[in-house]
Structure formats: C-alpha cells, structure tokens
Amino acid sequence: MDRGRHTVGPKIAQQAISVQNRKMIKRLPLLYRHVLYNLRGGFLVRPLIITLALGICGGLLSQMENAMPWLSGWAPRWLFPSHIDFQVAQIILSSIATSVMTVVSIVFAILLMTLTLASMQFSPRIIVSFAQDRVTQWTLGIFLGTFSYCIAALPAAHNYPKSFEPVVTVMGGMLLATMCVAWLLFFIHHISQAISVNHIVDRIASETVAMIMELMPDPVRRHKWSSEDLPSPPSTGEAVMCPASGYIRFVDTARLVELATQHRFAIYVLRRVGHFVPEGVPLIVVSKEGRMTPELATELGASFDIGPSRTLQQDVEFGILQIVDIALKAISPAVNDPTTAITCVDQLSRILICFAGRQSLEEGYYNPPGVLRVAVPRHELDKLVDSAFEQIRSYATRDVVVSLRVIRALNDIGTTIHDSEIRKVLAERGRRVVDGVAKELGEDTAKDLRLRQAMIDALVAKA
Of 78, 321, 352, 372, which is most buried with the most CB atoms under 10 A? Predict the structure, then answer.
C-alpha cells in the first residue's frame, strides 16, 4: 500500500506539471502579441535592447582587438595619437561614461517635465501616446547604450600582465559620444514639437487610424448599419468568470473558435474590447452545461488580454476618448481654447471616416458554416459618433465656432457614407447641436448652424 501511494503521488505531480505546461503553451500567442505591443509602446523593451546590444559590442570589440592586435592600425594617428598608453584609453572611456550619465539625467528631467505638463494641460490618457514615441525610446537607448559600451570596454585597457590599449574600441566610444551630442540636439528639437497640441492630436489620430486599418483591412463592400441579429446567451448556459479585474484589451477570436469547435458548443462574449470587467463577474457564457472544467475555463480566459489600462490593440474608442479629453479641457472656462477643440473635432472626423470606410469586423463566427461558435460584441459606428461628439456638444453649447465645426464634421462623415439610416442618425446628432446652441444663445445665433445642418438634411434626402 505504501508503495502504491508513493507511486500515485509523483504521477499526480507530473500530470499537474503537464497541465500547467499546456496552459503556458496555449498562452504563447497572446503573450507574444503582448510583448510585441510593449516593444512598440513602452520605455522598457526597446531602450533595454539597445543598451544591451551596445554593451555587448563594447565587450566583444575590445576582446577581438586584444586577440588581433593588427586591428589597432585601423585607428588614425591624428584621432588617437598615443597607441601605447593604456591610461589614455581608460581616461577617455571613463570620461565618456561619466558625461553620458550626466546627460541621461538631463534627458530624464526633460522627459518627466514634458509628461507632467502634457498630462496636466491636456489629459492623463495621452501619457500612453508619449510612451510610444520611438524618438524618446531611441534617445534613452542610445545614451544608456553608450554608457554600457564604455563600461564594458573599460576593463580591456590594462597594464598587467602586459600593456594593452583598445584603440579601435576607444575610437568607437568617441564616435558614440559624438552621436550622443547630435542626438541630444535632435531630441530637444523633437520634444519641443511633441508638446504641441496639434502634434499630439495628430499622433493619436494616426495611431488610431493605423489600428483600424490593421483590424479592418478590407474596404467596405456593403453598408451594414445595424449589427447582425445574434442570438442571446442561453439561460441554461454556463458562465465563465473573469480571472482578474481590468479592461479587455485584446480578444483572440481565432483561439475561441478553435476551443468552441473542439468542445462543440457556442461561446458568447459578454463584454467588448475596452470594457472594464471586475474579477468574478461573468466574462463569457458557453451554450452547454456540464462541459466546463477548470482547465477549459483557464484556456478560455487566456484568450483575453486583460490589464489595468486600455490600449490601442483593438480599442478604437480609446483613441477617440483621448482626443475628446483634450477637446473638453480646451473648451473649459479655465482654458478657453476653441482652436484646440476645433483641431480635435477635425481629427475625430478623420478617425470616424476611416472606420466607416472599412469592412466591419464580424460579430458572429461560424464553423462549419451555419453553426455559430463565437459571438463577440464590436464597436458600432453610432456609438463611436456619440463617444466622439456627444460630450463636446454638451460642453460647447455656448461656443458657436466649435458647434459649427461639429456639424461640419458630421456632414463630412455623411458624404462618405451612402446608407440612409446612417445619414439619418448623423442628421439627428446635428439637430442636437443646433438645439443646444439655440437654447443657450438664442435662435438668432443658431442661424449659421441651421444652414449647415440643412446640408446634412440634404444628404438624407438624397439617400
């Protein structure tokens, strides 16, 4: 009996380890995408890679020069006159490392000041956009990389057991130091432009449009205003709870379809990308009871990227809300900057026109054809229009200039869409703008608004 117990114990442990390994393997695609997104949009990955690469270059180059002394002849005498004094190499490398670290502290101070100013003046949400700035990431990487290069090469200059001067390595450090000086000037020029509100809004809009083009690569082939009538989650279905509190940032629909086909049930996703889901709240519902196991629930939860903040992986609305925040601060009585609000409205119309011109994502996934496997709620155009203009409309009832630009943006969107139902919705949103201004400032002030609203009504009549 004791021998049997000792045999069962290791088997259970091995099974638990194998299950855990399978979970990790199935999460690899999502983790890979998450790492790629952080590589593009964080201060950690790209600067760290640059720093490690230059540090390795410094160490390898000095070792190669030690093994092949003839490499020292490549360095011109006028650049490094003394090829026999190892102390000169130590002084140059240590001076470059010390100076670069001083400049790095200045760069960090400039960056923190810029982030603080931008978050206070515009919106805390745009810090994400600043973190994705590649110029800033390369600046930190190059300066820290130059420091690591010099530190890695410094031990190669020695006098025991024989004197060795890494001339070519020192020349590389001097070239990197020269590049750091030029890059610092470029960084200061770049950061002075980066805090411009027009630059900030344009960058957010460009990133949002790029994400829309990636998610919805095909031009619109048919105008689908209302989403397809997907069946509601069955009352007898089995719910899978959210494994952690946070915002849904990415949904791996291909993995969900694979799991639903494998286990022969339908999966109903209850929250769309961008929604916050507390831990323990139902995240999905499967159509059949009795098939859910802890392992399967873990696999289903691993198909969702849930985090503490929203991102632009699949969340179109997040890009819109960042620009809306800037517009609302601009038209607030404390700031009173309608020009910035107009710029935001223009970029919002750009995003919505791009979204309306692409073939929308499917809400229902079928495998085989006719058999529903996954139902996923998606962003809808009317909801995005409300997210973009409704708050601006309510705050700009006493600002005719901004209200005029909102109606023009609605008209621009309507001219790119030929569906009558969509145009009716845009016309109704425009009438809200006109009625709000007329109520606050009087009918005489709203005359220009009504003339521009008539252009949207004309589009409705043509459809």
Answer: 352
